Amino acid sequence: MADTAGVGTLETLTTTLIDSINGYKDAAQNAEGSRFQELFRSMADERSKVAEDLRSEIRRLGGNPPDDGSFLGATHQRFLDLKSAITGRNDESIINEVERGEDYLKEKFETALNSQDLPADSRSVIERAYQSVRQGHDRVSSLKHGLQA
Fold this sequence. Notes:
This is PA2169 family four-helix-bundle protein. The protein has helices at residues 4-30, 34-60, 71-87, 91-114, 120-148.
């Protein structure tokens, strides 16, 4: 039987990470510069490792970890596809969207870490994952501000 105290939070974070992975893969496919393509693929790989850590914790707690992203993430991606068909994509607009996604992901992790309902072991896993998320967020934010300079 699953320990539900942390499973729901872990599932939500995993689903959001999968959205992030899909977003990075899409960004890599659509980026104009090979530098950005490589960066986004690398970040997708890093997020995959983090998602697997959360999946392992869900399994440890007796849950069934998600393999797919969220409906909201898929809907957002379809909107971006439509928007890019109309306005075109360039590296700056892709990086702006990636940063928006990073802000959302970082906020999800911060909300989870502020919860008092997490078991100590799960909190530790989420804190480790958050460090990776925060580093990715800061990297994209720095990249965005570097393009604007």
